Please model this.
Amino acid sequence: MLNYIIRRILQIPLVLFVLSLIIVGLMQLLSPQQRAAAFVTSDKQIENLDLIIKKYHLDEGFLVQYKMWATQVLHGNLGFSRISKEPVTVTIRKRFPASVELALAAFVPIVLVGVFLGTVAAVNRDRFIDQALRVIAIIGWSLPTFVMAIWLVAWVYGGLGWFGIGRLPNEMLIDLATSNFHHYTGMYTIDGILNGRLDVTWQALIHLVLPATALVIVVSAGIMRVMRSSMLDELGKDYVRTARAKGLSENRVVYKHAWRNALIPVITMAGPMLGRMIGGIVVIELIFNFPGLGEWAAKAATQLDMTTLLAFVMLIGVIMATVNLLVDIAYVIVDPRIRYE
Model:
């Protein structure tokens, strides 16, 4: 198992190398002037694009430009983001915790709700509760995420005044900026506790409710459908019939024997889903004014900030490669029969 993990970790640089070749290659479709805009850090430099083109060899071939870009990245310089008006690495450090906080706040309920309802539906196959849950799952799965998000903002926040948008109330953000509040993790739910500011933690949790709810309603429907199908498949196998023939209770048959095996497809689906959520739920972050990576990347795309987009894609590559490795490890935990040589 350890050798397998080491091999997978060593594959991550190769994945990033291939990904960077593709992205930098696609950038060659832009003119040198368009690529030079990615290196502009002030309005004065716009008048001197030719100097930037010469400095970064943007009028030369792909290999020269890739070498220039890779050299900068290896020295920890991912470039300057025109969207955030600061170095890309600084923006990532600021926004990454926000996306992680939102992803975890939504991911845990998504999995718990989806697995629970999927199990209930499978155990009660073709009964009323199963039919009702299947209808709910179809509606949730068919409903666009942005529609649910807009409804929640309009009805719950706008109409009832409940919860909130953004990460914290504006007055609290001003207070934290002028106080001795330390950002240990960048996640307000945790930093509030570490700073002894439970009011910050409480407000952070309140502001996570609506975006997390929008994700849970839509995404958990997919988890539920996968869990129901997988559970039905396991309940029809010989080892389950044998367990029932031995006189084991139905709860023991379901949760002791079939349930763990049925989780394998759920883990396969949930792992990449978490990676994408950490990478940024673009629509959710935009609608709820949540300053995470997704909102940053969306604004960069609209303004053709190639430096930001390139760094964002590379970060997603690292996240997805890491998550896939964790998924493979989770397989072994859930089903000890699985072994990696």
